[in-house]
Design brief:
5-stranded parallel β-sheet; 15 helices; about 5% strand
Length: about 325
């Protein structure tokens, strides 16, 4: 048995084959285009993907608090708790307790499935999905919960990801730390996904998505066994604000626009050669495996720049100067 991806988890029979399409898991490191891709997929007439769930792993890690789901009262209480999750309350289509098939909610996985299926029905669709970047290191849990799920791993050049992460209040403190963050998570995700059958996952690049969205989306819909739909190319721009909420202007300022190739490879214009050399030392092999251009591999100022990053990281850790979170 594969220890990371067991073939027979306790929930493996909650969704018998040929009764409903499998869920879709959009995975990727933060700032890699997961939101853009999920909105494009959500524009398909059959796919419903809310912004982010954020609670799957928390519930998975507290099984003793789920109650005895053989009892109707416990099933109802669990769904009511999920309906009160901040992420669920922000859904554009309201799902009430009466919309969820409580008889199916005999496990955590089947409860999530029933809730998200109700959301999909409210949207007039029959396939649900999720995209939550923090799950990138927990793909084995997602697979155990949903052993038929299809995984779409979107990858972006780590130097662009690192440059974007350091601008966020929740991201790593500096460029070198952010490069390690990207490298560790991308490498982990790729290793885990390759333990699955080939028909269970696909890798796409952010750069391809913004340069040629039609071809990239066609490859994804073919992988999912669906027809490509023209609405996927631009419908998301009209609903981005309602789906993403307050973070649209602050974290996702370009979602109301059509894909722009200028959002790719910004590191060539913005990352100094000394930092490019640091990125090469940290993740050069992974960048090369993914087909990305090397950039500078050596620089006389590299050692000084490494010292700068260590000092800056320590300073921010000690005193903090990042923007605090707003709202809930």
């Amino acid at each position: 048995m594969n220890r990371l991806f067991p073939s027979n988890s306790p929930d493996s029979n909650i969704r018998p084959m040929n009764t409903a399409p499998p869920p879709i898991m959009v995975v990727g490191v933060d700032r890699s285009g997961t939101t853009l891709l999920s909105l494009m997929l959500d524009s398909h007439s059959r796919i419903a993907i809310p912004y982010e769930s954020k609670f799957f792993m928390r519930y998975h890690n507290m099984p003793d608090q789920l109650g005895n789901l053989a009892e109707p009262e416990a099933r109802r209480a669990l769904i009511e708790r999920m309906l009160n999750e901040p992420s669920v309350r922000q859904w554009g289509h309201t799902v009430a307790i009466g919309d969820v098939e409580l008889d199916r909610c005999t496990s955590l996985a089947s409860s999530i499935d029933a809730l998200y299926s109700a959301h999909a029905r409210a949207c007039g669709k029959d396939i649900w999905g999720d995209k939550t970047p923090s799950y990138i290191t927990s793909l084995h849990v997602l697979n155990a919960l949903f052993p038929e799920a299809r995984f779409i791993h979107i990858i972006r050049d780590g130097r662009d990801v690192a440059s974007s992460l350091v601008q966020q209040w929740w991201g790593p403190n500096d460029f070198a730390e952010a490069m390690r963050y990207w490298h560790e998570r991308v490498s982990c995700a790729r290793k885990m996904l390759r333990m699955l059958p080939e028909n269970r996952f696909i890798e796409v690049r952010f750069e391809d998505l913004v340069a040629n969205p039609r071809n990239t989306l066609e490859s994804i819909t073919t992988f999912l066994g669906l027809d490509f739909e023209e609405a996927m190319l631009d419908a998301y721009t009209r609903k981005a604000s309602s789906r993403v909420g307050e973070s649209l202007s602050e974290i996702h300022p370009h979602l109301h626009e059509k894909p722009n190739p200028e959002q790719a490879y910004k590191w060539k214009r913005q990352v100094p050669a000394s930092d490019q050399a640091i990125a090469h030392e940290i993740a050069g092999r992974t960048l090369a495996e993914l087909g990305y251009e090397q950039g500078a591999t050596q620089h006389p100022g590299k050692l000084f720049r490494e010292l700068y990053h260590r000092v800056r990281s320590a300073y921010i850790w000690r005193f903090g100067n990042k923007k605090p979170p707003t709202g809930g």
